[in-house]
Amino acid sequence: MMKKGYYIHFQGRESIGVSKKIDMQMEEFGRYFEMQEIEIKAQARSLVWRIFGLFPTASIAWDYQAVLAQLEDPDFLYVRRTVADRDYLRFWKKVKERFPNCKIIIELFTYPYDRDDFGKWNAWPFYIKELLYRPKLKRYVDRFTTYTEDREIFGIPTIHSSNGINVDGVSQVAGKFTDRQINLIGVAFMQRHHGYERIIKGLHAYYEKGTPEYQVTLRLVGDGPEKPFYQELTGRYHLEDYVHFYPTLSGKELDELYDDSDIALVSFGMYKLGFYGKLCALKSRECLAKGMPLVTGCEIDVLPQDYPYAKVFPNDASTVDIGEITALYERITGSVGSKKELSDRIREFAREHVSMEAVMRPVIDYIEPPEWRTG
């Protein structure tokens, strides 16, 4: 008999990226268990009650009762983390009282998360709640899923996982290598942590040296608050022939642009967020699934140091040396017979390391060890 599980999130469908991840995780869970998704919704409150809710012992108005009413003999709950407060803690207590054998697994999609979640001045009331109540979660929560190497967080044992992707759902790059031309592509909602100014400054230094051996172009696809800065910098350095901007694209238009590109860019400004660990951003998974070499300014968690199809620059404000990118391109093109062979190799790596099946396996095995499964 299949185990029954519930995937619980706090209005996660309001984010396109989170919604996609929920779909992929639900699909993977559904291969082994009887699954149901539950969205916890915020309840409407008057202004007075919202102000009162900022007090340390008050709670965010999530409709926990509606969730409790839907639970029917669960074997496990898989939950996307939200701010810990009094009602959050009480909810897990009630779940354990009603279903003592139910495994509660909370996914920490970022950790440490204090700076990201509570870094702004107006977030301090929620940070106080978090500090007050999260140490008590160990009474009820069985495991945290984390993308870090921490064995224990807040006194709770961890399951080591990573950001995953449906590799078969990502179109593989096509096209051919272009003689003496390298097209870089960065696709993002342009924010500070993308740090693409390091590439633009690198191109400025590269072309200032004279006629280069390779013509290197940069394609930045997407909008966002940093885009005007990148455009201004491009104009200041007179790089309009080499740096091209595109609006947010998707589907066939975006695939065709990827097909005509050679190397994908990830993030070059994580230092601005005080992040110096290994990055597990979904963008790195998408590029690997497409079968594209990567250049990044921050280590990627799944890439070994000697991975031949990636180049990692220091996680700081230094200008990116474009010559090192052309050297990477020469090594790559000299080691494979075609762009198709290259993309096949990278895509197979993605299937083994960042497919949803691969990254969810530790969670699945914790819920039900392989030797117990009947499905």
Describe it for me?
The protein is an alpha/beta fold. It contains 13 helices and 13 strands. It has helices spanning 16-29, 47-52, 64-70, 86-98, 114-118, 124-133, 197-208, 227-236, 251-259, 282-290, 322-335, 339-353, 356-367, and strands at 4-9, 34-39, 76-80, 103-108, 143-146, 152-153, 156-160, 181-187, 215-221, 243-246, 263-265, 294-296, 310-312. It has a seven-stranded mixed beta sheet. Strands 10-9-8-11-12-13 form a six-stranded parallel beta sheet, sandwiched between helices. Strand 8, helix 7 (197-208) and strand 9 form a beta-alpha-beta unit.
For this entry, give a set of tags:
single chain, 375 residues, seven-stranded mixed beta sheet, 13 helices, 13 strands, globular
Rg over CA atoms, rounded to whole Å, is: 23 Å
Kindly, what is the distance between the CA atoms of the first and last residues, rounded to a whole number of angstroms? 8 Å
Number of β-strand runs = 13
H/E series: EHEHHEHEHHEEEEHEHEHEHEEHHH
Placed side by side, the strands forming the largest sheet appear as 2-1-3-4-5-7-6
Helix-strand makeup class: alpha/beta
> How much beta, percentage-wise?
15-25%
Considering DSSP H and I runs of 4 or more, what fraction of the residues is helical?
25-40%
Main β-sheet: number of strands, strand sense, barrel status? 7 strands, mixed
| Overall pLDDT confidence | 93
Question: What overall form do the CA principal axes indicate?
Answer: globular
Low-confidence stretches: none
- In quaternary terms, these chains amount to single chain
Number of helical regions: 13
